[in-house]
Amino acid sequence: MARRSLQGGGVRAVSAVTEETRVGVRSLNHVAIGVRDLEASLRFYVEGLGMRKTLEKPTSDLTPALMRLPEGTTGTTVFVQGDSRVGQLELVKWNLPQNDEGRPKRPGDFGMGQLSFPVGAEHIGVIHARLVRMGYEVYSDLTTTIVKNYGPVTLFLCEDPDGTQVELIALPSPDVVRRFRAQLNQEDEGR
């Protein structure tokens, strides 16, 4: 476990790593989001973003109890994944015993506010144009900005059919990040 302590006006990292604190999660397995229209969501994530379906199944009979859902809730779940095969997005169409058409989360609300997907710099413009052509709400043209101590990123944001904010971002390679940081260090030394 790493702790930070103030000593003499500065911050110092104190390491107290034990076997117990080394035990933890390995990676993100999946993120589940409830959708109003499964086919519309699949069109966005599969046709629009280029993800692929990996599994489609009805929700388990255990799901309502495990997730504290009303008794009698059923649903269909579809997993989609990008080329990296790391992490999946689970799209769930719930069939609740009573209708609940609550609004989706928005940035600034508690809970999930945005999904962010990395894409290759050579593909981000193609995906942007495809989503615009398909009629999805895309917030802006491609935007390139410099992230402090990281480097240049190109991104745009849009909404899926349920109003979930989705960011598509072309990240710099590790070599570009290293060169960017080295340049910053040289500039700092020159001051």
TrEMBL record:
<dbReference type="InterPro" id="IPR037523">
    <property type="entry name" value="VOC_core"/>
</dbReference>
<dbReference type="InterPro" id="IPR004360">
    <property type="entry name" value="Glyas_Fos-R_dOase_dom"/>
</dbReference>
<keyword id="KW-0479">Metal-binding</keyword>
<feature type="domain" description="VOC">
    <location>
        <begin position="27"/>
        <end position="171"/>
    </location>
</feature>
<dbReference type="Pfam" id="PF00903">
    <property type="entry name" value="Glyoxalase"/>
</dbReference>
<protein>
    <recommendedName>
        <fullName>VOC domain-containing protein</fullName>
    </recommendedName>
</protein>
<dbReference type="InterPro" id="IPR029068">
    <property type="entry name" value="Glyas_Bleomycin-R_OHBP_Dase"/>
</dbReference>
<dbReference type="GO" id="GO:0046872">
    <property type="term" value="F:metal ion binding"/>
</dbReference>
<dbReference type="GO" id="GO:0004462">
    <property type="term" value="F:lactoylglutathione lyase activity"/>
</dbReference>
<dbReference type="InterPro" id="IPR018146">
    <property type="entry name" value="Glyoxalase_1_CS"/>
</dbReference>
